[in-house]
Each structure stands twice: as structure tokens, then as C-alpha cells.
């Protein structure tokens, strides 16, 4: 494939599959989601934050939910790279492991089990599905474990005026309530549209190599 293609976009489970493909194919390889990372999503999120808040180096962000999932892990990477404050509120068993945080800089304020405490002063409230792709067999268990880690009226009240973001698809009344989703649908769908623009930028950048 390295000889036939100009580049590849891979969505799969094992991060090592993407890295091996990139290493042996020698062509630009875009990670379109693995169990460990979701960088294209985070590029679109940063674009959205920049559009709505004027920049992404200043705002304090709170990720609430499955803090060990690919999206949370890519947020850790982005916080270190761009220098913003990130808190992750998740039950102990769903907090990012030391490897995810290793070498990612000093600015991560907090990994906590208390979402409301972490929400105070946040500029962005962000969540993702509780049951990521490949975890379907754990669905009932995860929903029970993550039940308190929802973006709802109470959490939004702790961070008045904060952007509410979601990488989609959303499961209403699970990680976000229906009413909060609807109130922030404009932001969330701008964020979804920015997946298109951010990924076009990635393709353009790689085509310039
Ligand atoms: N964490 C989610 C992201 C969905 C875009 C998953 O891996 O399914």
C-alpha cells in the first residue's frame, strides 16, 4: 500500500497497528481513532474553542466521563502541547493511567472523582460516550459506573457561561442530559462541522510535504 497510495487514514483499535503501518508504509498516516487516541477530533475541538473563545491557550477545560478513553487521552496531549489547563473528572477506574499523562507537561491541574469541584471556573465542559467502540460488552457495567459523571443542569450551573462540547455521537440522558444537549446544540454541531475543516487542513498540510 505504501507504493500505491499517497497517504492513509486509519480508524482501528490498536494504536500499534497505526504506528506499524506508518513505519513500514512510509506514507503519511492519519490516526482517525484508536483505542488510545483520537487526534483529529481534538484538532476540530481546538478549532471550535478558538473560534468561540478567541484562543485555546487560555481556557480551562474540564473533561467529564470516561477519562481513560481515547478522546480524554488526546485532550491530555493537547493540553500539554497548547499549554491550557485541563481537569479530568472520572471515577477512579476510568481515570487516565500514568502512561497517558507521562511527559505531557505540568499544566494538567487535576484528575479528580468530583466533577462539580472541577467544574468551578471551567470555560469548557466536554464529554464523550461512556461506551467507546469495542467496549460494547461492558456497556451495562460502564453505564452504572459512570452514572455520576454526566453533563447536566447542576454541572453547568457550577461553570456558568462555559462552552458545552461533545465529540458525538451523544447518548442523551447518559453522558449528557437531553436538555443540556439541546441548549448547546449550536456549539456541538459547529464542533462537528469543524471535523471537516480541521481534517481538510491536515490533508492539505500533509500534501505540502
Ligand atoms: N471514545 C469514542 C469516540 C467516538 C468518536 C469511541 O472510541 O467510540
3D architecture notes:
- The chain has 209 residues and is of the alpha/beta class.
- The chain has helices spanning 15-25, 39-53, 70-82, 98-101, 115-119, 139-145, 153-158, 178-183, 185-207, and strands at 8-10, 29-31, 60-64, 85-89, 108-112, 124-127, 163-166.
- The chain has two domains: 1-34, no CATH class; 39-191, Aspartate/ornithine carbamoyltransferase (Rossmann fold), CATH 3.40.50.1370.
- The protein is built from nine helices and seven strands.
- The strands form two sheets. It has a five-stranded parallel β-sheet with strand order 5-4-3-6-7. A two-stranded parallel sheet has the order 1-2.
- Strand 4 (85-89), helix 4 and strand 5 (108-112) form a beta-alpha-beta unit.
- Helix 2 (39-53) packs across helix 3 (70-82).
- The two termini are 19 Å apart.
- The mean pLDDT is 93.
- Norvaline binds at residues 33, 38, 69-71, 128-129, 132-133, 167.
